Amino acid sequence: MEGEINNLILVWLTVVVSLCYCYEVSKIFPTVTKARLLAILPVSCLFLCLPLNLTSIHLGGTTSFFISWLSNFKIMLLAFNKGPLSSNPPLPLSRFIPLACFPIKFKVQDSVNLPASAKKRDKSIRSYVVKMLMLAILVRVYYFKKILHPKIVLLCYCLHIYFMLEMILALVSSAANALLRVELEPPFDEPYLSTSLQDFWGRRWNLMVPNILHPTVYQPVRSISARFVARKWAPIPAVLATFLASGLMHELVFYNIGRLKPTGEVTCFFLLHGVSLSVEIGIKKRVNGKFTVPEIVSGPLAVAYVIYTSFWLFFPPFLRCRAEIKGCTESLAFVEFLKTGRLVSPSELSCPFL
After folding, report:
1. For the chain, is the Cβ count within 10 Å smaller at the N or the C terminus?
2. Are the C-beta atoms of 168 and 62 separated by less than 8 Å?
């Protein structure tokens, strides 16, 4: 465990130094040139490889998501003078680095809606407390997993992943908020209240992913496809390309977690949802508002579809790399550290409910 912490420090020091370099490159080459792109490209390749120095699911998986995916896409946008890191006037380095490293997005201040924002923030705090309690309940449920139906266990894993993701991203946002003294966009927006697949993937689930995929994949592909198909249908290829990119990046994150040869199942999961979302968009364009399914029906169906397809394509590779066991033992090692102040290797521990 001590070696993993040392590797984590080295990886993130490398990330910070690399981002300082990218910051200087953007000032040396203020316009889009081949030199600017060639100067940033090696950092992009480095960010793909850095998480391979980490083997734990929490540290390695999170670093892979933050650096190999989100930060990598941001600096590639910077190479073309686009995206959140490119602004006029330039961002100060104190904001550039956290914005590049972490899945955060600055919120535009609106003095008119300050009371509503405060109310929403109070609601979010209550929501996080409830989710932490539900996460604790899930841990107790796992003690009985051997007598539960496998589909019930997978449903628990769905909830666990959602709660853990929201807790981690909310913690990162809170730390960034405290350090930068700015309001940040929330990472999730109650995905269980989605009214459709379009609503789930575009406006509620892990919002930093669509926020970064939109300028890097969706907009360029839509612009190109508009030259070959009717403008009305140009979003369809863009949606498929966006979900393909998401699937490939999830494969990379899964590889960093388990170091198993990718099977393509995760990519198929996202491609399936890309096709499903394209069909949904196509139907909406065809009916043009003449017929709508009540949200009380379409919402639960959309969420159920996401959960059911995750049972089929998302969780098999997740379970093959023993992610749930790794996550459990790492959590126990962290609790042991808090109790005794001693770093314990997860391999020395075992989950009592597995």
Report:
1. C
2. yes
